[in-house]
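Batch 3, record 17
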Amino acid sequence: MNKLGVRLKKKGTPYGVKVPESKLTAKSPIERAPLPEKVIIPLHQNIGAPCEALVKRGDKVLTGQKIGDSEKYVNAPVHATISGEISGTTIVVNPPTAQPIEALVVTSDGADEWVELDVPKNPEALSVKEILDRIRGAGLVGLGGAAFPTHVKLSPPKGTKIDTVILNGCECEPYITSDHRVMLEYGEKVLSGLNIIRKVLSPDTIYIAIEDNKDDAIDHMEELIVAMGLKEDFKIIPLKSKYPMGAEKVLTKMILGREVPIGGLPLHIGVVVHNVSTAKAIHDAVFEGKPFIERVVTVTGAVKNPKNLLVRFGTPLRSLIDYCGGIEGKANEVVLGGPMMGFSQFDLDFPVIKGTNGVIVKESTPIREQDCISCGKCIEVCPMYLMPTVFPRYVKAGRYDACKEAYIDDCFECGACAYTCPANIPIVQYIKVAKRELTKRAANK
Amino acid sequence: MTTEREFLISPGPHLWRGLSVSQIMYFVVIALMFPTGAAIYFFGYRALSVIGVSVATAVLTEYVCKKLRGQAFVMDGSAVVTGLLLGLILPPTIPLWMVAIGSIFSISIVKEAFGGLGHNIFNPALGARAFMTVSFSAQMTTWVLPMGFGADAVTSATPLSGVSDWQQFDPSAYQAMFMGNTAGSLGETSALLILIGGILLLGLGIINWRIPAVYIGMVALMAVALGQDPLFHILAGGLMLGAFFMATDYVTSPLTNRGKIIFSVALGVLTVIIRQLGGMPEGVCYSILFMNAITPLIDRYTKVRPYGLVERVESAS
Ligand code: SF4
Ligand code: SF4
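Prediction for the assembled complex:
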């Protein structure tokens, strides 16, 4: 019970796993990372189409200037994140896709001179179309990890009624505290962004889901909601911390008791889920006219001083790690994102991109796969109620169709099964192999 | 600063709970120390030697099997568990060479011949006990009263031996049965210490409560339905050890909770029926072995319903 006396009963799920939280930076205020001498801006940072470069070598660019865009609808443009000169192009490899991506390199002139921001005179009067244009123009993508263009997520297909919006402040991945700090330090902007989302989607109900390992954020958001007179509109749902509570499909089930159909999206059941940091960025884009060029990144694990940093996109990982005092101990792995769903990256020249919410330096844990002992623990924890135990077996036997019949499409690769497996079977790895193979086969048909 | 370092790439998730198969096995070994302690207290040197031979032979057999099959031998503790369990379900007076044969059989035939841990269909210890009952029937059904370290062995019937007698069973013996001061297999007599070991495993989340709870509950229910004493059924014979340590064996029990419940209900019914009708006084061993065989079938029909199966959406984008 907090001082406002309003607290809904906490909800919990029997599925998922309890992971050590390791939120080393929960109490560290957001710090601005020093501006790098050069940034690397990949032209493809979202789910959907890649951008075409709008500038060429030698061009002068200003901070916030659009340098890559596409005609395609499912795309988000990219911007220069420092001022200076386009000094060339390079190729980077983003681990999740393993595809080489073209990137522009901007060399700083040290001035950080911004483009003129298009601040709306009367932001309240903006139409839905204008709001969506601003969001697309700012290059916004979902910041929870998937990097899906935000304007697309805010434009449900005709005839789809969105009755519920869930603002996701769960941050169930261990180590990461960027959403947590954003709620504490930019709470007003988050709620203002949520108001914009409300205007666009006009849902009946709006929930804010926060895990109870962030009690201070729950209290803070509650106070702000009351202070801003939004108590009737926004309901905070405290959730018992458990991984992967923050997954969209888990949230719809937990909060609304609704299941997203297999292969579907929350909008198919009238729900849209947005991340708290996305909401803050929506506010910045719509009310302040700011292009999306920076975000909060938790740099943590085996670094000397773990920090929450406000980082310009394109900043190389190396400079962030150095700014945090360098690597300590025997750490030999760098994970982008949370430890459960993140990807390891060996190249420290790789830049922070829109989807990067954390950089975790850690010691790699070797996998010693044994035979499955049929303990059923993976089944107990799977938030999609699958039987993960069958996937490695089917993949080894080349029975990909059997994987499909076991609803492999439902799996969102949260890793709870592999985390808990006593036989240390890299179940998610097998699942990825099967999915890749199934996609390939479907394409060949 | 951070430059000159080799970084590794590994698949996610980048965290592991760290409770490995062999840690689980050694927790089971620790839990089994309670009934083992009872066995040694009540049956003295006989208990020590039977259990010792059983465990040593099991580990040695596992080693030889792995070498013969050209695989790495890992001391994962599973052979120790099998050896311990087998020792605990044998009568105290069994000749040691029979123990060794039973132990070799459990590991080489019941476990390794099927492909080793994770691939076996039957619980190795129970498989060996069934084999020994057939091969050495006289020695496998000779029971003695607890004699500790000093006294001579005095042959006696186990509480369960005469199925038709048990209506006249003297209830004052319950306390002895609960503590373990009665005739029976080495580690099956003390319900109390089995319970302590079992609760330890439940507390650690290593075994699923559904199996012992439903199994024992079902036996009690059946006993009541037949107008017999449920407490007697629960405390007698190998039910407690079987329900907590054998029926809960991961490999040979169903995967899902629903499967586990069906499995345990069937176990309870079978156990009482075999106790009631069968020539063998002991139903637990054969019920579990029978249900082990049925487990793949149960698994096939108790798949969980996946999230979102409600209505399939064809086009997703
Ligand atoms: S099968 Fe997929 S959804 Fe289920 S626990 Fe494993 S990774 Fe998560
Ligand atoms: S958790 Fe691992 S060992 Fe247990 S059933 Fe699942 S895959 Fe098999």
